[in-house]
Specification:
Layout: E1 9-13, H1 27-30, H2 32-59, H3 64-83, E2 106-110, H4 118-128, H5 130-140, H6 151-167, H7 172-192
Antiparallel strand pairs: 1-2
Amino acid sequence: MLPSAFHPVLVSARLDSPLSRWLWLIKWILAVPHYIVLFFLWIAFVVISVIAFFTILLTERYPRPLFDFNLGVLRWSWRVSYYAYGALGTDRYPPFSLGPEPDYPARLDIAYPERLSRGLVLVKWWLLAIPHYLVIGFFTGAVRGGWWGGGLIGLLALIAVVTLAFTEKYPRDLFDLVIGLNRWVLRVAAYSGLMTDVYPPFRLDMGGDEPPDRMPNPVREA
């Protein structure tokens, strides 16, 4: 049995060094092919989530092939976000892949649930997740505050790379905070995507690695 502190969504990242002092200025252009593909992948993600909703309601199971596909979309999105303006933590171009890509510096894994609650599937993606939506809206800029459209994560990543441009160093404390914020967002994405019944904690787990007491033993490769 997994420890009670275990969370099924595992997010990790490695800060690459050295990083280019100026490549971040054009990453929005370099990432365009990924954004185009992800646009269609996220349409598929929504469609599959609807299919999974009815399947869970009837069988208490999320079909494994559908689960793996949606996990792949989240992995792909996290890698692109990490390369681009969700962290700017690597200059290594993201692969066009739904797979785990264990050698890439940004990794994500979600433990497959053998059973999911029929009752929770009716309310968790909208009602129960509302408090988290309010929080991550601030993190990501989904809730526009007027003066900054990129959210807190984008602002912190920008501060980090401006510092990098002048000092050749990405501030480690900022990196840990940015990854912690992204970890929160990805946990909520998995929960609202019906991929787990474990409610996301209102807790900022900072750093590139998951806290050791939050991980299963042995750790599955993300």
